[in-house]
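Treating backbone geometry as a discrete language has practical consequences that deserve illustration. The sequence in question and its structure tokens are set out directly beneath this paragraph.
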Amino acid sequence: MVGQTWLVILSIGFIISVIGILVAIWFLIRAIEDIRQLTGTINGFVKNTEERIAPILLEAEQTLRSMRKVSDDVGTVTENVRGLSDAAYEIALSLKAVSNVVNGLGEGVSLRAAGVKEGIRTALNVIINQIRQRR
């Protein structure tokens, strides 16, 4: 009888073990299905995110190109202003030279006018003295 009792206990243990293994397999199958669903959801999320990010990336790229163009334009304007400044400096130097020439001419004309004036005064004095001497 003891032999049969052990046989019954071992049989019940075996059945419980088989049931436990079947329950574990069932849980594993459910977990695999959940993981498969989760993978599908993640794939959908990634696809949706890629679709939303694509226009943003395109706009960012266009913005960077626009900023590059503005930067190049600012560089060109800076070069033009530098050229204009150099030209203005050269004009100022030229005006100073012209002013010096005009001042020199003015002084020369003043000296000539003074010389002519003195010459006329002297000539008149000579003529007056000659007329007085003739009388």
Helices lie at 2-134. The first helix runs from residue 2 to 134. The mean pLDDT is 86. Residues 74 and 80 are 10 Å apart (CA to CA).
